From TrEMBL:
Pfam families in UniProt: Pantoate_transf (PF02548)
First-level EC class: transferase
Name of the protein described by the UniProt record: 3-methyl-2-oxobutanoate hydroxymethyltransferase
GO biological process, one term: pantothenate biosynthetic process
The enzyme's E.C. designation: 2.1.2.11
Species name: Rhodotorula paludigena
């Protein structure tokens, strides 16, 4: 088995750069962002960068697959079962980052700075970001917030750590925002979202996630920013889109009893029901004596060797 994350014959694929993202925005080619939280989910992303046999796929001039692989702090909820993203520690985040980095080599690797790692001081934020790069093997970090995170964004960008902003619905502030609520619905709130995005650009951010705002606002902001905007629940006129991988696979990990999730979610797969069916089928097969099957799932031993083994055991008794 190859361990380099690609099949042994294929040449290594070129890693996506910030320059590539800027070119995509300029050409109005939507930027694709998807989360990963472990090795298999990273490998699913890496697989999307491979040419599709038999299909001509994307034009050769365009990079294939997922442009940015986000190790989002939503993994706290979807992969760890925490109540909110705010319970995730930096050490836990680092563990997930390292697993993702082993599986995904073509996409730009981006990680959320976890809640509480940058609130007390700029120094704390810089230290946390450096750990995500050095120990977590990330290329860039994402930071939720506006005005209040600008000093940190300036520090990191001048230190050579690329920063993606995150405005609109910022889940780390869900308590202050009284829940996961759409932002930018009033003149004041819309103005705030725009000012935050613009200020992040001025502070050096290479892009900004805009979450759960009316699409007209997201488009208005996208048209006025030079850097790419990545929307989630922000309509089709942002420079790109992001979803949580387990959501779009249809795993329903933290979506509650209804399993429906936020309005902006589209399920591109039905993995949850398939996985649950498979577990039940396994139970039935074991209980019903249908698994494992002799000769198919078993290792052979010659009769001669087995007889010799039995004699050896008898001799010892
Ligand atoms: N599985 C998962 N997917 C996510 O996208 C996600 C998480 N978890 N956890 C962290 C945050 C929380 N997010 C959320 C969670 C809920 C809504 C939601 O229910 N929104 C309502 C709008 C409520 C309103 O303002 O009226 C909706 O109906 O879409 C939105 C974003 C996005 N992030
Ligand atoms: C949904 C994206 C933008 C995110 O921040 C996360 O997955 O944590
Ligand atoms: Mg996040």
């Amino acid at each position: 088995m190859s361990t380099d994350g690609a099949s042994s014959s294929a040449p290594p694929r070129k890693k996506r750069t910030i320059l590539d993202l800027q070119a995509l925005k300029r050409k109005k080619v939507p930027i694709t962002v998807l989360t990963a939280h472990d090795y298999p989910s990273a490998r699913f992303i890496e697989a999307a960068a491979a040419p599709v046999p038999g299909a001509d796929g994307a034009p050769a001039s365009l990079p294939r697959g997922i442009d940015i692989c986000l190790v989002g702090d939503s993994l706290a909820m979807v992969a760890c079962g925490y109540e909110s993203t705010n319970q995730l520690s930096l050490d836990e985040m680092l563990y997930h980052c390292r697993s993702v980095a082993r599986g995904c080599t073509t996409s730009l690797l981006l990680a959320d700075l976890p809640f509480g790692t940058y609130a007390a001081s700029v120094e704390d934020g810089v230290r946390a970001a450096v750990r995500l790069v050095q120990e977590g093997r990330m290329d860039a970090v994402k930071i939720e917030g506006g005005q209040e995170v600008l000093p940190l964004v300036r520090h990191l960008t001048s230190a050579g750590i690329p920063v993606m902003g995150h405005v609109g619905l910022t889940p780390q502030r869900q308590a202050s925002l009284s829940g996961y609520r759409v932002q930018g619905k009033t003149v004041e709130s819309a103005t705030q979202v725009y000012r935050d995005a613009l200020a992040l650009q001025d502070a050096g951010a290479f892009g900004v996630v805009i979450e759960a705002v009316p699409s007209a606002l997201a488009q208005w902001i996208t048209d006025r920013l030079a850097i790419p905007t990545i929307g989630i629940g922000a309509g089709m006129h942002t420079s790109g889109q992001v979803l949580v991988q387990l959501d779009m696979l249809g795993v329903d990990s933290d979506l509650g009893a209804s399993g429906k999730g936020p309005r902006f979610l589209r399920k591109f797969g039905d993995v949850g029901p398939h996985a649950r069916d498979a577990v039940r089928a396994y139970v039935d097969a074991v209980r019903g004596g249908e698994f494992p099957v002799e000769g198919q799932h078993t290792y052979p031993m010659s009769d001669e060797t087995f007889q010799a083994f039995c004699h050896a055991m008898e001799a010892k008794q």
